[in-house]
Amino acid sequence: MSAADRVCVAQIGAAHGVRGEVRLRSFTQDPEAFTSYGPLESEDGARRFTIEALRPAKDHFVARFTGVNDREAAEKLTNLRLYVSRATLPPAGEGEFYHADLVGLAALT
After folding, report:
1. Nearest to residue 10, comparing CAs of 62, 58, 52, 53?
2. Domain residue spans in the chain?
């Protein structure tokens, strides 16, 4: 799948606690929307992540992914951006754009 066919919807932050949880920052208009798009993928598409548990925190979420069971595994995911297929996203409304569609365009005044 090409980069144009995928959209970044979240980014993993630092590990949270010792049980494999991570801080997760959402890039979707509705902060929890990314949970309804199915498994999330790494930028290169080599890894898939299924959310096992999710809870809100101050300005982020705390998430646990299936197969990430300890702090060491969680720390290896720090700063990993998570993507979904563009086909799973709702169409952009009138005058709305996905951030990925604006990257590289010229800004004019």
Report:
1. 62
2. 3-102
Q: The whole model's pTM is what? A: 0.86
21-36 per-position pLDDT tens digit: 999 999 988 999 999 9
Dihedral of alpha carbons 39, 102, 91, 26, sign? positive
Lowest mean pLDDT among 1-10, 32-41, 70-79: 1-10
* Strand duo 21-26 + 40-41: pairing: unpaired
Say what the pLDDT of residue 79 is. 97
Report the CATH fold assignment for 3-102. Elongation Factor Tu (Ef-tu); domain 3 (2.40.30)
